[in-house]
Amino acid sequence: MQRAISTGRLDRIAMGLSGLCLVHCVATAVLLGALASAGGVLGRPIIHEVGLTLAMMIGFVALSRGYLQHHSILPVAIGVLGLCVMGFALSLPEGGHEPLFTVTGVTILALGHHLNMKAGGDVHSG
Question: Residue 80 and residue 61: Cα distance in Å, rounded?
Fold first, then answer.
């Protein structure tokens, strides 16, 4: 049975979202330093909550599909760890160590998706 969106494609989408999250975090930090008013828009909690929700939904689908294909638990474990670190970051006060934990979680999640693609034989160069 053919799936509408391949697991590898979901992993690539999830990695792209992780990259966008990383850019968002860095841009927010830079803009907060340069323009305090810009941080009011980009730093709103709803953006982080929506981003984490999307990451969790896409991550769940891509990582579980991958596991069903290749039966390797490592990508799932690493992806879940990344999501947990991102969730923990949401519980921290804005400004302090929250950006560090968010960027760390995003990076770990992207690694999980990369390993998921690699385990499924769906890594393409270029």
Answer: 12
